[in-house]
Amino acid sequence: MPPDRRRTPRTSPLAPAPLRRADVPQPAGSPRRPPGAAAVLRAILDHGPVARSTVARLTGLSPAAVTGHSTQFVARGLVAERAQTPGPRGLGRPHIPLEIDTSRYLVAGAHIAVAHSTLALMDLRGRIVASDREPHRDRDPGQVLGGLAARLPPMVRAHAGGRTVLGLGLATGQWVDPDAGVIVDHPRLGWRDVAAREVLTAATGLPVHVDSHSRALARAEQLFGAVATRGSVVLLFVGNVVDAAFATSGGVHRGPRSAAGSVAHLPVGPDTASDTTAGIPPAEPCTCGTPGCLQSEASEPALVRQAAARGLHVADFRALLDLALAGEPRAVALFRRRASLVGRAVALLLDMFDPEVVVVVEPGAGRLPECLQVLRAEVGARSWVCDDPERAVVPSSFTGSVLAVAGAAVALGALYADPLGPWPALPAVS
């Protein structure tokens, strides 16, 4: 039976319970602005340094509209003008190329995992400036969120270089409601209805944006990742928790309850005969009741348990990954098995959504070439619609910095979606 979602919310000094999302104040509204501003800033991000005339051609906007938006961006310090260059073949008016200005502002990001939290600073081009990770001393939401807020000022002092932090993004797994700024349900942490935005805004004084890490990473892929992800992408995150996101035409699908992406319990099924021969025990029962679901077979805790069954008594998943990277045969075999199971889920997602690309956020696929080969082979054998797994299935663009990118991408994605919004520290534009 699935868990009872009507259970009493966990209490916290900083997140009082009970809480209804309807009771959480929405962020201050801003007047609706045409999407042209976001399109202009995105074109400058993608192609800068770039002339205004080229931006007009890329966006389909009039030269006057592009000039108006870019003038506002320059005034706000989001965009910088480079030295003039001659027009084509020395004719016409000189061009003044535009590029994203990384000298004035940063965004901060936080990612909350099951065992630890990651804090990061990111510039406006999506590059990580600094990051650190600390284990949870206490999983109480008040302690975790308060600890993140306390860690931010020292990081800014040490690494911002005088730049102003525009906002803070928070990402985590499971069910997150971005509109309410609430972590609705995170069973692995034991959190329910935690008003994260409210707590962090009060503690830091910054605008805070909250989202699931899979949606944040899908948005990061579309902003800063491979060009192939710009049209439509499914992102599958396989870690301590397993979830996914679907993005198309620059937007990420959330669903009416912000619950889209719950794929942890897709049935992938173990290879019973080969697993028995290899000494891998049956998966521990999952709360979903589905035998052989993706969470119970391929999550990080599952891999650590499987390692112990093979005589590899590692302290944690990172230690197991280090063994695999060093070529330890039993560790490599476990990651290959995991890649095969993940490949089955990817084949299902490809057939369900038919995206241009599936991005797999899983360290085996990102750092062990043989695992990516196994994963793609499984997709090729099982998918009805994918005729080129080499093109359609790719590792994360941010392997090695996934968690740092996830939190910061929540804030930076909000900036690129509404660059003329009421961001603090930006000069007013009439």
Describe this entry's structure for a reader.
With 430 residues, this protein is of the alpha/beta class. The protein has three domains: 36-100, Winged helix-like DNA-binding domain superfamily/Winged helix DNA-binding domain (Arc Repressor Mutant, subunit A); 104-219 and 404-417, ATPase, nucleotide binding domain (Nucleotidyltransferase, domain 5, 2-Layer Sandwich); 227-396, 2-Layer Sandwich (Nucleotidyltransferase, domain 5), CATH 3.30.420.40. The protein contains 15 helices and 15 strands. Helix 2 packs across helix 3, helix 4 (141-159) crosses helix 5 and helix 10 (317-325) packs across helix 11. The longest helix has 25 residues, at 329-353. It starts with 35 loop residues before the first helix and ends in a 13-residue tail after the last helix.
Overview in brief:
The chain is an alpha/beta fold. It has helices spanning 36-47, 52-59, 63-76, 141-159, 196-204, 213-224, 272-278, 294-298, 300-309, 317-325, 329-353, 363-367, 369-382, 389-392, 402-417; strands at 79-81, 98-100, 105-112, 116-123, 128-135, 164-172, 175-177, 182-186, 191-194, 208-212, 232-238, 242-248, 251-252, 357-361, 393-395.
